[in-house]
Design the sequence.
């Protein structure tokens, strides 16, 4: 600590240059924070997925439907505790940009299968007794300012190109932070009866099954697929996490895209900050020679330069991450498309480590140069 | 007996014996010092004079442990400093040598008192003890009232006095001055020389000063002339 004023003094020697370098680090870490939040929003569902849940879908693709009659056959397979089905509804509210997920489900099965969704007993009862009833997650209810009792018209281009009217009877919350509360769920009986002939009556999108022993999930998935082998609608069974990931990957490999952008940003930052530090040290080789002349050891000079670069990087990284925290704390900026948009503590810790690594990497070469400096030679430069 | 077979002076603080210094520039060897012997007794104020390129600053660097001789030995007190490692030399410099440079070489980002404090950062003194030492050193050079000032706001003479305060703040065995008045006007130069003389006479500091200026060397108790890397004369003190 007794060298703090020396490190700070050197850092603030060229205020404009230091400020610009600091700004570039801040911007990079704001970007880092926001990209991590976007990745979390797109891939977070994978981590929230139940480890004991499997998804059974058509082997060809998700848009191919499966017979509703498969449910009884699935439930007969040993090791399966519960099965339910959902179907992609693909509707919009008033305007195509007001998209959010909806699915018809069997309420009792759905609520048993999804303990992470919290619905009051009163809302649950209302849903069970209202044929046109629908429940919606808190984020979507807030997004459209919906209240219990509202009539909600949803247009679906997939199911007859018409408007479906639902009675909003319940609003659910997530049991933990990060639970997806965008979805709207309504009764399958209402959906199936309202479908026209030729719109897949008796067919559903996919099954969710819960296994008794997660350790046997792979074996059970194989048994399910064997059950429907050589049928008209063969299945593909996979863990819920993999299924959600497949959904997210429809817009590309998020991790790869985010990683690619961050590598490019940090590589540029490495060059910018490295060049600043190298120039800063080159300018004061004489002064470093003076420090050595009065007794600073090579190691102490190396530490001083490294401390300076680390301070700059950690300061910039800290500021950038703080701004990113502030922005993400305001929640989903898209009004519902990214409900899990937040900066995780792990990403904050990774950002902190990255800023320190940036400081070490950008400081090590000038620090090494300063350490190797011969005193007599350095004093001649003054 | 020293390297030249002469009897070593037991009162000498500085003993330079048979020193050669050769610099290499490409394939060319430049002999800056040749078979040089010099002794400086404790409490002496020695002026090193000679034309440019005669090896004065190189000799001062060798005595201050900033460089090593190609051959020969340099001993300060009981320490044979040419045999020390880089780290040992740095520690030795911090304990035993104060430097005063022609261009003051103050760190522009630190105030006068912070510049003076620099060598004390390498000691185990507490903050309060460091402050006391800095105040004493600044008082000795008459700059207590300028303690909070940055070098750019000080005159050349004042900067050099801060440089001297930095050189003496650890109470070193030896004060080495490389043309301390070379960048000053006559009046400021005289003030610096008065100060060095006082440090020598009143504090008993051993001082070796490189200078081109006969007026400055006249303040020393002994003047040593260098010519082409060899002593032109070394009168007995």
Sequence:
């Amino acid at each position: 600590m007794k060298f703090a004023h020396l490190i700070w003094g050197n850092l603030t020697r060229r205020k404009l240059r230091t400020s610009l370098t600091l700004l570039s680090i801040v911007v990079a870490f704001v970007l880092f924070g926001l990209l991590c939040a976007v990745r979390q929003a797109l891939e977070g569902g994978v981590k929230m997925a139940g480890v004991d849940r499997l998804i059974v879908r058509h082997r060809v693709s998700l848009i191919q439907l499966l017979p509703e009659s498969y449910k009884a056959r699935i439930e007969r397979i040993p090791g399966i505790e519960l099965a339910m089905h959902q179907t992609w509804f693909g509707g919009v509210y008033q305007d195509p940009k007001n998209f959010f997920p909806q699915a018809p489900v069997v309420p009792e099965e759905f609520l048993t299968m999804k303990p992470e969704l919290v619905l009051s007993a009163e809302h649950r009862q209302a849903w069970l007794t209202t044929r046109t009833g629908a429940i919606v997650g808190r984020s979507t209810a807030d997004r459209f300012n919906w209240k219990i009792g509202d009539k909600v018209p949803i247009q679906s281009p997939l199911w007859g190109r018409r408007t479906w009217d639902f009675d909003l009877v319940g609003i659910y919350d997530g049991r933990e932070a990060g639970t997806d509360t965008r979805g709207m769920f309504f009764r399958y009986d209402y959906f199936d009866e309202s479908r026209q002939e030729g719109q897949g009556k008796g067919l559903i999108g996919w099954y969710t099954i819960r296994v008794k022993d997660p350790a046997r999930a792979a074996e059970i998935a194989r048994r399910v697929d064997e059950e429907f082998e050589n049928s008209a609608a063969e299945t593909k069974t996979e863990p819920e996490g993999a299924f959600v990931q497949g959904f997210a990957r429809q817009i590309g490999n998020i991790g790869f895209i985010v990683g690619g952008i961050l590598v490019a940003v940090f590589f540029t930052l490495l060059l910018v900050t490295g060049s600043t530090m190298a120039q800063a040290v080159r300018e004061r080789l004489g002064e470093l020679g003076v420090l050595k002349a009065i007794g600073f050891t090579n190691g102490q000079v190396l530490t001083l330069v490294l401390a300076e670069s680390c301070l700059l990087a950690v300061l910039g990284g800290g500021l950038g991450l703080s701004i990113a925290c502030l922005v993400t704390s305001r929640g989903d900026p898209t009004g519902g498309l990214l409900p899990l948009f937040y900066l995780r503590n792990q990403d904050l810790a990774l950002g902190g480590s990255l800023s320190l690594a940036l400081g070490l990497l950008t400081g090590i070469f000038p620090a090494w140069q300063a350490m190797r400096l011969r005193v007599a030679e350095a004093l001649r430069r003054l | 007996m020293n390297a030249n077979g002469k009897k070593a002076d037991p009162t000498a603080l500085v003993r330079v014996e048979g020193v050669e210094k050769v610099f290499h520039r490409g394939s060319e060897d430049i002999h800056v010092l040749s078979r040089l012997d010099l002794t400086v007794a404790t409490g002496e104020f020695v002026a090193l004079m000679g034309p440019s390129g005669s090896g004065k600053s190189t000799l001062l660097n060798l005595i201050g442990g900033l460089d090593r001789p190609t051959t020969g030995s340099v001993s300060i007190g009981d320490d044979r400093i040419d045999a020390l490692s880089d780290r040992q030399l740095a520690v030795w410099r911090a304990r035993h040598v104060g430097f005063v440079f022609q261009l003051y070489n103050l760190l522009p980002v630190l105030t006068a008192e912070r510049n003076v404090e620099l060598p004390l950062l390498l000691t185990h003194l507490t903050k309060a003890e460091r402050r006391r030492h800095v105040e004493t050193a600044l008082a000795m050079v008459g700059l207590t009232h300028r303690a909070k000032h940055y070098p750019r706001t000080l005159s050349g003479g004042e900067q050099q006095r801060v440089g001297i305060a930095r050189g003496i703040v650890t109470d070193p065995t030896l004060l080495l001055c490389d043309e301390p008045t070379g960048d000053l006007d006559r009046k400021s130069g005289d003030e610096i020389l008065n100060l060095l003389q006082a440090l020598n006479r009143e504090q008993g500091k051993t001082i070796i000063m490189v200078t081109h200026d006969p007026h400055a060397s006249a303040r020393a108790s002994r003047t040593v002339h260098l010519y082409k890397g060899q002593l032109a004369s070394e009168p007995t003190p």
Remarks:
- The two ends of chain A are 28 Å apart (CA to CA).
